[in-house]
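Final report, closing paragraph on structural work. Over the funding period we assembled a curated collection of sequence-structure pairs, and we close with a single example.
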Amino acid sequence: VEFVPAAERSRAGEGVRGGVECILPSQVVVDGRRTVWGAQHDPLTLVPVKARAYEHASLSGRESAAVGNFLMALDSADARVAAAIRGAVQWFRDTAVYGYEYAVKGGLTPKPGAGPIWAGFYEIGTNRRMFSNRDGVVRYAFSELEEERRTGYGWYTDEPATTLRRYEAWARRQAEAQAAASRPAARTPSAVVDASHRGAEGAAVRGVRTYRSIARALADAPADVRIPYVLAIRDGRYREKVSVERPNVHLVGQSRAGTVLTYDAAAGMRSPGGWTYGTRGSWTLRVAAPGFRLETMTVENAFDYPANAAKPEGDTTKVNGAQAVAVMLDEGSDRAVFQDCAITGHQDTLFPNAGRSWFHRCTVVGSVDFIFGAGTALFEDSDIVSRDGGSATSNGFVTAPSTPLPQPYGFVFLRSRLKKARPQMAPGSVTLGRPWHPSGRPDAVGSAVYLDTWMDDHVGAKGWDGMNSTDAAGNRVLNRPEDARFFEHGTTGPGAVVSPSRRVLGEAEARTYTRERVLGGWDPTR
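Its predicted structure, as stored:
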């Protein structure tokens, strides 16, 4: 571009920067989680707005793909740009439709193995696909469109697939840049969080900025994302939803039992936005950036699962959708360390859905699918505790991995312990896991492996369970554990039962599950 006069280059650069400053705040954020953009936005408020009668204010699959491609083409070290890209990519993954092919003239046709494709319009907050005839009434099923609308308008697109492919290269470049700029873990606090602080947020106390709120302290993090931002969190209960989108954030509690980050959102509860949280919005702590650390503290989802389950059907206060996430590792999370901490909940407690994570000397507590997702997570010297639901035969499942097929490792438990919360818990009433295929994804072939792990008698001879999923056509599909990557080796204790349904790794293959290999060469102890 040297042939372009310097003044013109400068004006063009200013134009691009101005455009980015418009794009970033117009990205729709739902309950603290970035999504994508609308097909059109109000020029002053930047909120999504409707256009023609049948184009409602919504999230856009097609236009958002182009915005994501543009942001990835920028030569920018701005953490806000990276967070916007990661949020959009995760939204594309969450909303992909499989099992159909689409043509404007031919409409939507079921086809096993087809996809992914995306709808043109999604309802903000629920991610339901939106359609409309010329009367402007929202429909949520493609089949409800009139013939003229079904085949005369581009209701679906595959453009985000290109965005996802480009993202893989972009994410590799980001990881390389982060690794080159990484610094040793800092021990000097950047700020202090103290629930008993009575001064102004960020006021200096003995020379250190001090806050009452973890989220407020994160909002004041400096722009240099290469330097670890360490929050020393004093004992107390912090009731807040915390989303980490800045790299190299370290949360260090004063004590594991005394420093508690807590919230009580469940999937079926109404969020401040007016829609239900959904599983992906129910988190207490969400991490969407690399280099995160959590040490010597507890993160809990305090939703009262047993009390809710005990309510009779028809009770208007009963929540339908009891999934309640304590910790979620979202797109952008990588090299996350959890050291000497507790993560507690009931159903869907821990959601390592992206990147690599290491849990060392931790306790994870839950009941149903309480460690689930698509990421690579290594648990070393940790306690995995199943809560007692009171059943004589079925008290839940430890894991529900949705590991992408090309990914060699999912959840690995090394020299850990599977415990039960109550001695009275029925023997053989818990299984080691079941395969999760979100949205019926055919390439989600879960991986969970237990190595040299002690198991109490709540784990039974069955070992593993199947899991139903619903494909894009609404069909129920049973996913069998024998089709997943479920294994164990060297397990001991009353629950380490020899059984034909519990596949055992050979000695040579078990030796390949080293920390270095599982974590792809990353050393979390450095």
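The CA atoms of residues 196 and 212 lie 7 Å apart. The chain has a mean pLDDT of 93. We thank the funder for supporting this effort.
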